[in-house]
Design a protein that fits this description.
Length: 389
């Protein structure tokens, strides 16, 4: 990291102190970008970055995403030595479950993309599944796919480690500060309006997670991002029995066992779109999750739920994030649209955000990752089909 930068006029103002905003700040500080401020109206981890399942996988349908995820896995392996925080990154694998021949075909396509990128993903027959997840009732499953180097981590020390690192590097992190406007002059970004006064910066990074479309709207920009609420729970701890994150294609069920022994997981239920609903939990979710989990692991029937919570995904229509400057407003840089996958893509995706901020070449296909893909006529666009868990 470079020496502490003086406070004052900022080169970059990042909105959102979640994993995306803080990792972006970290890359910028390392590149010696100049004074950077990160602004968040909440506290550390109050957004999706403190509400997620900690899953980190490289099994994707889109080769470019596999590459970002592979780079992120390498970054998380280095995290403890680089940042001095143990994030309990455990590469116990990701096990996808298919209920039908059609889903197996889908996984077959995924495995061939992932193997094409040099990772050892493989298809499993139903009888091979319980060896990966002891106790799994595999009799009605069609099979699955598995990649050992996928895994899980603890989100909180990761966010905390980034926070400490960027502050040590001189980044100004202003928590409890609400952004109320994006200021512009002469057709480009000039800074932020906040409830604690204006901030001058020629570049604003939108790392506002589930609220990213609201921030874009403050800049006068329409984007297709939609916030969707997702619920999740943690059970009482059990003796270690489950290495991989298990996810099911049919309903988006996902769960893993943490190193404290709790089973942590969720399931997608239809919820109204938007952030106005807040982040409550529902009895409907508890019932659906219990049914789904016990259908696969009948032996867990006496397991008690300790707590349940929810958070927002920031979804895009094609399941791919938006990275880079918005051509409609020079200086406004997107780092949003990460859906349910921001943690697993953060280290690599934010390196590209930082390069975009610095005006350096970015090795991402604009047809997949730029906001421009949504600005032209709505034609045929590639869609990431593995948007779960
Ligand atoms: C239930 C659930 C499970 C998930 N599981 C996984 C998983 O297993 N693996 C994975 O990779 N990802 C998972 N995700 C997704 C992941 O958590 C997110 O993609 C990621 O945390 C997004 O990080 P972020 O920094 O973009 O946003 P956030 O962490 O949401 O941070 C955005 C911040 O912006 C701030 N903000 C917004 N608007 C303003 C404003 N106007 N002024 C000031 N501040 C503002 C908010 O306060 C917030 O702190 C899950 C998400 C949920 C909800």
């Amino acid at each position: 990291m470079t020496e502490a930068a003086p406070r004052g006029n900022y080169r970059v103002a990042i909105v959102g102190a979640g994993v995306i905003g803080l990792f972006t700040a970290c890359h910028l500080a390392r590149a010696g970008a100049g004074p950077v401020v990160v602004v968040d109206r909440g506290w550390l981890s109050n957004g999706g970055s403190g509400r997620n399942g900690g899953g980190v996988r490289q099994q994707w349908e889109t080769a470019a995403t596999v590459r970002l995820a592979r780079e992120s896995v390498a970054a998380y392996r280095r995290f403890a030595s680089e940042f001095g925080f143990n994030i309990w990154f455990r590469q116990g694998g990701y096990l996808f479950l298919a209920d039908s021949a059609a889903e197996m075909e889908h996984l077959g396509r995924v495995v061939s993309v992932v193997r094409g990128e040099g990772l050892d993903a493989r298809l499993l027959r139903p009888e091979e599944l319980p060896a990966r997840a002891p106790g799994l009732a595999a009799d009605r499953l069609a099979g699955g796919s598995y990649l050992q180097s996928d895994g899980t981590l603890y989100p909180f020390p990761a966010v905390w480690g980034l926070y400490e690192a960027v502050r040590r590097a001189g980044v100004d992190v202003r928590l409890g500060t609400e952004v109320t406007g994006v200021r512009s002059a002469d057709g480009r970004v000039a800074g932020l309006a906040t409830d604690r006064g204006p901030i001058d910066a020629p570049v604003v990074v939108n790392a506002a997670g589930g609220w990213s479309s609201e921030l874009s709207a403050l800049a006068g920009l329409t984007v297709p991002n939609r916030a969707t609420r997702h619920e999740i729970l943690a059970t009482e701890p059990l003796k270690p029995f489950l290495d991989p994150m298990v996810t099911r294609l049919r309903d988006g069920l996902y769960f893993s066992q943490t190193m404290r022994g709790e089973v942590v997981g969720g399931l997608a239920l239809p919820h109204p779109v938007g952030t106005a609903q807040g982040v409550p939990s529902s009895a409907e979710f508890l019932a659906a999750m219990a049914r789904a989990l016990l259908g696969l692991f009948p032996s867990l029937r006496h397991l008690g739920v300790l707590r349940a919570w929810s958070g927002f995904y920031d979804d895009t229509p094609d399941g791919l994030p938006i990275v880079g400057e918005d051509p409609r407003l020079p200086g406004f840089v997107h780092a949003d649209g990460f859906g349910g996958h921001g943690f697993m893509l953060a280290p690599a995706a934010t390196a590209r955000v930082a390069r975009s901020v610095l005006g350096e070449p970015v090795d991402l296909d604009p047809a997949l990752f730029s906001v421009g893909r949504f600005l032209g006529p709505a034609g045929q666009r590639p869609v990431e089909g593995l948007q779960l868990g």
